Amino acid sequence: MKISYQSTGTPRARLAGFPSTTVEGASHEEPLVRSPYPAAPRREIIPPHPDHAVRTLTHDFPSEICGWGAHPEYEIHLITKTSGSFIAGDHVGTFAPGHVSIMGPNLPHDWVSDLPPGQVAVDRDAVIQFTDDWVRQCMQLIPELSEVDEVLRQSTRGLVFSGATAWRAAETILQVVRSSGTEQIGHLFSLLATFARSPQEEREVVASEWLGRPTDANSLNAVEAGLAYIFENLTGDIRLATAARLAYMSEPTFSKYFKSATGMTFSSMVKRLRIAHARRLLDTTDEPVAQVAALSGYHNMANFNRQFLTEVGTTPTAYRRLESSQKPPSEVLSLGRRATAE
Length: 342
Description:
- This protein is an alpha+beta fold.
- The chain has 2 domains: 2-205, Jelly Rolls (Sandwich); 217-333, Orthogonal Bundle (Arc Repressor Mutant, subunit A), CATH 1.10.10.
- The chain is 37% helix and 16% strand.
- It is built from 11 helices and 12 strands.
- It has helices at 132-141, 149-154, 163-178, 181-196, 217-232, 240-246, 251-262, 266-284, 289-295, 301-312, 316-321; strands spanning 2-5, 22-23, 44-45, 55-61, 74-79, 84-88, 91-95, 100-103, 109-113, 121-130, 159-161, 203-205.
- A 7-stranded mixed β-sheet has the order 1-4-10-5-8-11-12.
- Helix 5 packs across helix 6 and helix 5 packs across helix 7.
- The radius of gyration is 20 Å and the shape is globular.
- The protein starts with a strand and ends in a 21-residue tail after the last helix.
- Residues 1-37, 321-342 are annotated as: Disordered.
- Residues 224-322 form the HTH araC/xylS-type domain.
């Protein structure tokens, strides 16, 4: 079962053979468009289909379903093109083509690509979603599936795969998305086996065991408004007061709910996303360091160097000179509180 979401040519997502995806609190008469002025929190509601246990889809970026949010289903996710910032729970990292992850039930997540205004990355994502009830019932009937239990448990904090595991998984994810029926379920079980048998060094649990996951409308509203505002003004002037106004909250209220939902302050989120952006510019362009600082929202070189050193462990100039294998992994962007595998 495949659903293809498109962000151009129609104001609504084009669905095929599956009940419409909705966003809680949104009008069904209006396009579901991401906006820095959210009228309601984003909680993706995925209606069950009587003839399909697994939901697969591809979608563009930007598209109607992109944005900070959560849902009760497991989500296996593949980025096929572009690079950008990846947020899961309280983790802030980076992604590039081939980024493979599994997000557990109700873990807030978002992938935001670095694209010029007006540009669309077609079929940026390949996604597989299924419920905990379904996979647990399968495990009861098929004891061999019990080997995936640890992966499912770790995915509640988000799992990102690398190396040969990610390479093999990416191919299998596309096979799942492109197939149907018994063949599709077979590919999915093969994918879960790849995850379950992956070496520990090729899987990373990304989110910390913090208790502040957003479970209420105010927290989700604060994060959706705050993140949209940050991403749209990453290189410019970002103010807490503006973010609070976009969320229709006072500054103290916004700050409280934003930290409750993300595990960090608004200013910390701005800093980490700007440093992640600077790191990608250093990796992918020949722009002078001073220009990288300006393009990342820093207009004081001393401050830029200090913030980059704190987040990455080296100065921007020294970072650019490192070989790829020597550069610090993306986990250094993860709040300074490393999650450990259980």
